[in-house]
Design goal:
281 residues; globular; 3-stranded mixed beta sheet; 2-enoyl-CoA Hydratase, Chain A, domain 1; 12 helices; alpha/beta; 6-stranded mixed beta sheet
Length: 281
Amino acid sequence: MDYQEILYSVADRVARVTLNVPAKRNALSPTMRSEFVAALRRAERDDDVSVILVEGAGPVFCSGYDLSSYAVPEGGFISEKLFDRWSDQFARHAIKDWMTIWELMKPVVAKVQGGCLAGGLELMSLCDIVFVADNAKIGYTPTRGMSSPDTAFFPWVTTMARAKYLQLTGAIISGRQAADWGWVVKSFAPDQLDAEVEKEVAALATIPADLLAVNKGALNEAFDLMGFRNAIKAGVHWHMVSGARVRPNAGLFQKVAAEKGIKEAIAWRDGAFKDIDYNGK
């Protein structure tokens, strides 16, 4: 299969899926998302694959959704006339993609360097195991001026206090802090990340794929019994309310961006937070 925006390879029982548009910091376009999901399912069907490793080409893992590529959805994901204004097709479609990771019978490991923001963070947080560089920048700044996350993962990735802090402030923390908070499993020095993750993944791939599937399934079923799946789906309604006209201040970020440009809009959104040390103990 030919891919336009990802790379796919298999060696030593590891399927490697690489987000491969470094010029756009691997922003998630509809094409990239479609190819990513197809690659996951391809690896799941392959008896020579035990583990799937997700990585990003270039200095940044993923900068979020490529919003410019969704400007004209050509009728929406389903009927634009019947569903666009009330069903939040974008969030529903995003959740459908990232829940593919959750439902896959093989473990998905993420290796994160540089930046992992917004939609990229949704992808990362649904992976089964995440390794990051100490200096990676991880956060969801759109909660400051645009909407709640498409995928409501924050209550599941760390403690209540930290989840509230992260989502309410849109904090960007380091990879090392994310590991300290239990959001990801380990962080490594940037120059050691590749080598250390290769060792981890190689060891994991020695476990029979069927046994990995049983263990992943047992864990996921326990989280589903605690409400994970329903909570993720419920986040669609909050995303719809937060980004739609029913919220009085909805659209302010887009208004500033249209009038003054995207850099000025980001400065408007993030300026008050620039002096805060999010990595304090």
